[in-house]
Automatic annotation (TrEMBL):
Function: Required for gamma-tubulin complex recruitment to the microtubule organizing center (MTOC).
GO BP terms in the entry: gamma-tubulin complex localization; microtubule nucleation by interphase microtubule organizing center; mitotic spindle assembly
Family, per entry: Belongs to the MOZART1 family.
Any one annotated GO CC term: mitotic spindle pole body
Stated name of the protein: Mitotic-spindle organizing protein 1
Source superkingdom: Eukaryota
Source organism: Penicillium cataractarum
Assembly, per entry: Part of the gamma-tubulin complex.
Length: 79
């Protein structure tokens, strides 16, 4: 059985893992910040399917980009 880490050691280990994942994320141009990356890790640790999570993130980004394009489009004015 592995030795139990105290809470400070656990937090430090978690930071190191997120640091490494952030570097990988940056290399892959995922555009996920540390908070988003941490949330994704937590979701996956709690049983969310990683492929499904990636699909949802991509779909949300497409929808956000589409909404942004629509809101930036010149509106027709009637006089």
């Amino acid at each position: 059985m592995p030795p139990q880490l105290d809470p400070v050691d656990k937090r430090q280990a978690a930071r190191e893992v997120i640091d490494i994942l952030q570097e990988i994320s940056d290399l892959l141009n995922t555009n996920l910040d540390r908070t988003e990356l941490s949330l994704c890790v937590s979701l996956i640790e709690n049983g969310v399917n990683p492929d499904a999570l990636a699909t949802v993130i991509k779909d949300l980004r497409k929808e956000a980009a589409s909404t942004k394009r629509v809101s930036n489009a010149p509106s027709a004015t009637t006089e």
